[in-house]
Amino acid sequence: MKPRVESFFHEATSTFSHVVFDHGGGHAAIIDPVMDYDAPTARTAFDSAQRLLDFVRAHSLTVDWILETHAHADHLSAAAWLRVHTGAKVAIGRGITRVQERFRDVFHLGDGFAVDGRQFDHLFDDGDRFGIGTLSGRVIATPGHTDDSLTYVVGDAAFVGDTLFAPDTGTARADFPGGDAATLYGSIQRLFELPGDTRVFLCHDYPPDGREPSAVTTIAAQRERNVHLAGGVGEAAFVRMREARDAGLAAPKLILPSLQVNIRAGGLPEPEANGVRYLRLPLNHVGSGA
Q: How far apart, in whole angstroms, are the C-alpha atoms of residue 99 and residue 184?
């Protein structure tokens, strides 16, 4: 089973969103859609999500699912906006409840913010199966980068979120709250059990100079050439490398606005009495020294 996949690159955040579908006039899922967000002005827009919507409409596709691979820290999700325009169900891994609980405290959202995942239409567990028209998909829990990280496998296509990057750039960081390098290593080993010709669709690509961003690689290429894993790197060596590398990484530029929106399934906070919506900035609480 070889589903059709169309990938869209959001240059400002180096994010790939994907539309996976069975055939023209059939059914589709949208994976990791991006809301446009201008940090200096805190203005939101949906031009990038509109491109996804235009594509599915041009191909007469019924969107069954909007699938999040995890609660992203580097871009705001357009899932809620697309749900309104498509009627699709928004889904994420059940680990989102732990992410919500943790960041409810970080943003001091209070008991009124539910941490049971109800903002999403469906929470997936490891091994769950789902349909996209004539396509059959399954879920592999791939925590380590975050508690809620999932890989969606649809036919010969695997949508891995941040767990793996392109072979020449390596693997996800594991220093976010709930992240763990050893857990990440185990998750990647599960992915390496997939057939070598499995297409691996990335959520991000940060290419070195001279290479254009690429949305897709293969399991075989990852096994053989991933700069953090090639040559049969063992768990202990991987953990040492990952922890040392993560210690020098800056926090993602959009981590604070992103997580407030993404734990709400892409929804914005409710307006205050003046009709304005507000995001919170917890001072001296995130990043180095926090």
A: 16
Q: In the structure encoding, which two tokens stand for residue 165, read together? A: 């990057």
pTM of the predicted structure, to 2 decimals: 0.96
So what's the pLDDT on residue 289? 53
| Cα angle for residues 83, 31, 150 (degrees, 5° grid) | 115
Q: Which two tokens stand for residue 126?
A: 């490891």
Residue-wise pLDDT for 185-208, tens only, equals 999 999 999 999 999 999 999 998
Whole-number Cα distances in Å, 215 to 81, 83, 179 = 24, 24, 24
Q: Provide CB contacts within 8 A for 20, sequence distance 6+.
A: 3, 4, 5, 28, 29, 31, 132, 135, 154, 157, 159
The torsion region of residue 87 among left (phi > 0), alpha (psi -120 to 50) and beta comes to: left
Q: Are 168 and 65 in contact (CB under 8 A)?
A: no
